Amino acid sequence: MAAAGVTVEQLAAYVDGSQRGLPPVVGRRPPGELAERLGLARWIREGGMTPEAYAEFLATYLDEGTRFHHPGYLGHQIAAPDFPAALADFVHGAANNPMAVYEMGAAAATVEFEVLRWMLDKVGYGEAGGGVLTHGGSLANLTALLAARAAAVPDAWTDGVPGDLALLAPESAHYSLTRAAAILGLGERAVMPLDVDPLGRVDVARLPAALDRVRRAGRRPMALVAAACATATGLYDDLRGIGEFCAENGLWFHVDGAHGASALLAEEHRGLLDGVELADSLIWDAHKMLRTSSLAAAVLTRREGDLDAAFRQRASYLFYGDQGFDLIGRTVECSKAELGLKVFLNLAWRGERGLGDYVAGRYAAARRLWELAGERPGFRLPYEPESNIVCFRYGTGDQAAIRERLTEDGAFHLSSAEVGGVRHLRVSVMAPATDDKTLEALLDRICEMGGGRSGSGV
Fold first, then answer.
1. Whole-prediction pTM value?
2. Which residue in 94, 219, 272, 394 is a FRET match for 375, CA 20 to 30 A apart?
3. How far is CA 394 from the centre of its chain?
4. Cα separation of 197 and 200, whole Å?
5. What is the CATH number of domain 90-346?
């Protein structure tokens, strides 16, 4: 109990200090040096950690990580977790109810059922839809495409995958979709690109030509993928236009809404997902804009039976009796964590309105950055942001060098991405503590750097 008290006390101080932007946003000590500082080899070899020693270890451990609650954390699409989700992790760490099989965690499974009902309702699938929570968006995309494969080739689970299937996706699609195609046995070459506009959004008018190319190549389309929103730019595809095309042509329509589906909770941004109810499948990460800790991602299908068809398995020690409440038939994982509890407790504390306000606030902060940068000379912004992600360039130098220097300073952590084949700085506004003062300070620091070192920046 003493160690638990130490943990709560230090984590509270860690979050508070991070939110106030006091320490560096990211630690970058080399692994060998960090392992020595943490005493890892000694503790592994000898054991014997006491609450007092643990307190010292935890302080160092937290100090050397990345502070997602920090106002200067503007890097990747990982949540600054809200405290109710952290409580759920604490509960699961002690209770350890892996609940893909109902009898191993009835309360956890029931919570997940209700969270999924809520998500299905938000998407517009209602009672006819089905869902499951998985450990991350990559696994969620794989699961959704397993359902698509089962719909296209019902015997693939037992007989193997025919060599003529194709997955239609824009080149801007998340890497996990190409990885899923390879895992599913289609192979990377089966991923056939869709025509896009200069910002990487699917060109609906050119979908007929893309489908014709696929069929002339002797391929059968297994699924067509759209983004809500794209990982690099935060821009949304035209879901209604794509969905109507897929319905007219008998194509499975999959939406990767890992990051942007949470806009469904913000009234002023809900229209970005117009047409999402036409999708046959959708993924939605809670560990991004719903502020849970990693990982918790939903796989949702418009027809419940499609998700149940994704896996065809027999195991006498697990698959027996009444399977009506078991989720194991819908997921890769058997020992699946109590993921629904994270989402539920965030909802229970903040409410749907509170989570929606958070999404709207982060989207507004990104737009504010776009406005502030647009008022300054030297900044080039290729598009108006639709989410909490903004890409821009400063000067003509190497943008990656700017990012590296910002990270070395410790006050800001950005990422970078290519837009139209050109390297840009990329900001993802995730932390509630990021405000106008933070954004102005970021732009000031970039201007002070003078555009980075020379180079193509591509």
1. 0.94
2. 272
3. 27
4. 5
5. 3.40.640.10
